[in-house]
């Protein structure tokens, strides 16, 4: 099903804003625009992968710190 009132984010918006819009509007995809022109389509799986990569990086840093390597 498509909607006529499309929710978009600008390329300068944060991931947090994107997540908020997805959650508030119960959508899984949001077009990304640059000066009003569409440039990308971000899905909830893209956001999830991004968050997982951040968490993995933090875990690696913590392991290095605990083992004395950082």
Automatic annotation (TrEMBL):
InterPro entries xref list: CBS_dom, CBS_dom_sf
The protein, known as: Histidine kinase
Signal peptide: none
Coiled-coil annotated spans: none
Biological source species: Leisingera methylohalidivorans DSM 14336
Listed GO MF terms: kinase activity
Domain of life where this protein originates: Bacteria
SUPFAM superfamilies: CBS-domain pair (SSF54631)
CBS domain ranges (all copies): 2-59
Annotated Pfam families: CBS (PF00571)
Keywords: CBS domain, Kinase, Transferase
């Amino acid at each position: 099903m498509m909607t006529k009132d499309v929710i978009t984010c600008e390329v300068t918006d944060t991931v947090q804003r994107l997540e908020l819009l997805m959650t508030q509007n119960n959508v899984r995809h949001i077009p990304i625009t640059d000066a009003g022109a569409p440039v990308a389509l971000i899905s909830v799986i893209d956001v999830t992968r991004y968050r997982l990569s951040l968490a993995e990086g933090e875990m690696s840093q913590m392991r290095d710190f605990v083992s004395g390597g950082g």
